[in-house]
C-alpha cells in the first residue's frame, strides 16, 4: 500500500529520469492511496462520533444524578423553596455552562446571584453535598460555612453534616453553638498567661 513518501518517490523518479511513465499506473497509485486513506478517515470520524455520543450520555447521566441529590438536599435545608440545575444550552451541552435555579416561596425562579447571603450559603452547600453523595471523599474541611446562617438554618446544617460524618471525616471551623453541639470532638485555642494553648474536648 502506497504512502505519501512512496508517491513523492514516484514523482521524483519521473522528474530525474525524464522518461515517460504510464499515466494510468501513476494515477492508479494515487487513487489507491486516497481510497485507502478515505476509509481510514471515515473510521476515525465514526470513532470520534461514538466518543462524543458516549461522553454526552455519561455527562447527562451524572448531571441527572447530581440534580436529583441537589433537589432533595436543598429541601432538607430550606423549608421555603426548591432548587434545581439547568444547562445554559440544552442542544450543545458542552458549549454552555450550568445554572443553579432557586424558587423561594411566592417568588419566581431566581439565579443564585440574586439570593441573600444565607440563601446563597444553603444553595451552595446543597450543591456541594449533592456532588459529595454522587462521588464521596473520605475527608472534608469546611471553614465557617455557617457564618451567614440564622439559628434555624444552622441547626439543619449541623444535623445534616452529623449524618454525613458517619461515612466520612469532617473538620469544621465554626463559632456556632449548633455546629459545636453536633461535633464528636472540639478543638479550641485558649490564652493562658499570655501563651496560646490548644485544648480539646471529646463530647
Order of helices and strands: HHEEEHEHEHEE
Q: Compute the number of strand runs.
A: 7
Question: What order do the strands of the largest sheet run in, or round the barrel if closed?
Answer: 1-2-3
What's the quaternary structure here?
single chain
Question: Summarize this, please?
Answer:
The protein is an alpha+beta fold and 203 residues long.
List the helices and strands and how they pair.
Elements: H1 4-17, H2 23-77, E1 81-87, E2 98-104, E3 109-111, H3 117-134, E4 139-143, H4 151-164, E5 169-173, H5 177-182, E6 185-192, E7 195-202
Parallel strand pairs: 4-5
Antiparallel strand pairs: 1-2, 2-3, 6-7
Helix pairs in contact: 2-3
Molecular structure report:
- With 203 residues, the chain is an alpha+beta fold.
- It is 53% helix and 21% strand.
- It is built from five helices and seven strands.
- The chain has helices spanning 4-17, 23-77, 117-134, 151-164, 177-182, and strands at residues 81-87, 98-104, 109-111, 139-143, 169-173, 185-192, 195-202.
- The chain has a three-stranded antiparallel beta sheet.
- β2 (98-104) and β3 form a beta hairpin.
- The longest helix has 55 residues, at 23-77.
Amino acid at each position: 500500500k502506497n504512502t505519501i513518501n512512496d508517491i513523492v518517490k514516484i514523482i521524483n523518479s519521473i522528474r530525474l529520469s525524464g522518461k515517460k511513465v504510464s499515466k494510468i499506473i501513476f494515477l492508479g497509485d494515487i487513487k489507491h492511496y486516497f481510497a485507502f486513506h478515505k476509509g481510514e478517515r471515515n473510521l476515525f470520524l465514526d470513532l470520534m462520533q461514538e466518543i462524543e455520543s458516549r461522553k454526552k450520555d455519561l455527562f447527562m447521566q451524572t448531571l441527572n444524578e447530581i440534580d436529583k441529590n441537589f433537589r432533595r438536599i436543598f429541601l432538607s435545608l430550606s423549608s421555603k423553596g426548591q432548587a434545581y440545575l439547568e444547562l445554559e444550552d440544552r442542544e450543545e451541552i458542552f458549549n454552555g455552562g450550568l445554572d443553579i435555579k432557586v424558587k423561594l416561596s411566592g417568588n419566581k425562579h431566581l439565579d443564585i446571584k440574586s439570593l441573600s447571603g444565607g440563601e446563597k450559603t444553603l444553595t451552595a452547600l446543597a450543591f456541594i453535598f449533592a456532588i459529595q453523595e454522587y462521588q464521596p471523599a473520605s475527608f472534608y474541611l469546611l471553614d465557617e460555612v455557617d457564618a451567614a446562617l440564622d439559628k434555624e438554618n444552622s441547626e439543619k446544617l449541623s444535623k445534616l453534616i452529623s449524618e454525613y460524618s458517619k461515612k466520612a471525616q469532617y473538620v469544621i471551623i465554626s463559632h456556632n453553638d449548633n455546629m459545636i453541639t453536633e461535633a464528636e470532638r472540639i478543638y479550641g485555642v485558649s490564652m493562658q498567661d499570655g501563651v496560646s494553648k490548644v485544648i480539646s474536648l471529646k463530647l
